[in-house]
Amino acid sequence: MLRHRFHTLALALVAGALCAPASVSAERVFTRHAAKTNTVRQLDRAVVATTRGAADLEIGDFHFLGGPDKKLKVEVENTGNGAAGPSVLRLTVRRIDGIAVGRVVEVNTPAIAAGASAFVPVATDAILPNAVALADTTFKLDADATSAVAESDEANNRAWHNL
Predict the structure, then answer these.
(1) pLDDT (0 to 100) of residue 14
(2) From its phi and psi, is residue 97 left (phi > 0), alpha (psi between -120 and 50) or beta?
(3) CATH level 3 topology of 57-161
């Protein structure tokens, strides 16, 4: 009887995991229990399989364009196997002349097909003093900053400059 209840619960969990966006935490829950029964190991593989078609956004190259709007051109790459819908790219200036700050600008990123990338212009003139160039600051870039896209790896969305 107990074994039947466990299998019913396990099937319900997998059904929910397959309908919901794949996530690392769902995989970890099943992995933690994988040593207990063969059934859970099979369920674990089913959850991992749902992440194979997921997007994976990363920051690629970025170039300082300068000019009065202190623009930066950022490449957002989708290295995953699934398409990524529209998302938000966030630039956070953390240090100006050695002084800690937290100035933020966000821009929309278009949908990106699997294996493709998009170049996103980011104007920073509204968050920087006139005499400060963006290249002279410490800043971070976060792809999919609002977690709008279900990704196979959420931990690789950040890049730093002058850290």
Answers:
(1) 37
(2) left
(3) Immunoglobulin-like (2.60.40)
